[in-house]
Amino acid sequence: MKVQRTRSQDRILNLLKSLNRAVSAQDIYVELRNREQSMGLATVYRSLEVLKLGGAVQVRTLANGESLYSSVQRDQHHLTCLNCGASITLNECPVHQLESQLEDSHQFRIYYHTLEFFGLCDRCSTAHDSEKADSTPHL
Question: What cofactor requirement does the entry state (predicted)?
Fold first, then answer.
């Protein structure tokens, strides 16, 4: 049985598919207004929640707590810098086989997964190492 979506949910889903990148609820709200398809911010959040629970939208929460939404097109994998917030997308996925095993062993329908590693990017790591070296007492 196909789930009946509201007009607001359809608009948001179509927008996310056309943007082809993860965006915040605020960005969705502004973009819909720019496209003369405005809706209230509360409606945007409610629609995103329904779409997420239905497996049509995935959410990624950044280290700063901001949530980014995208249409479910593929799994997402990232390296995220805790210092500058830079996020590097990984194209390979080391957990696809595990996903299938979990679905089978737990009778659990998986819509998508995310894999995120947090640390320091090369630029921030170099700056951090320099700061550490500068603060080390010289004898």
Answer: Zn(2+); Mn(2+); Fe(2+)
* Annotated binding residue 113: yes
Enumerate the domain spans of the chain: 1-72, 74-139
| Residue 4 Cα distances to 15, 50, 90, 109, angstroms | 18, 11, 34, 20
pLDDT in tens, 14-56: 999 999 788 999 999 999 999 999 899 999 999 999 999 888 9
Q: 124 among the known binding-site residues?
A: yes
Residue 73 has pLDDT above 70, yes or no: no
114-119 and 76-81 as β-strands: parallel, antiparallel, unpaired?
A: parallel
74-139: CATH topology is Dna Ligase; domain 1 (3.30.1490)
Q: Would you say 93 is a known binding-site residue?
A: no
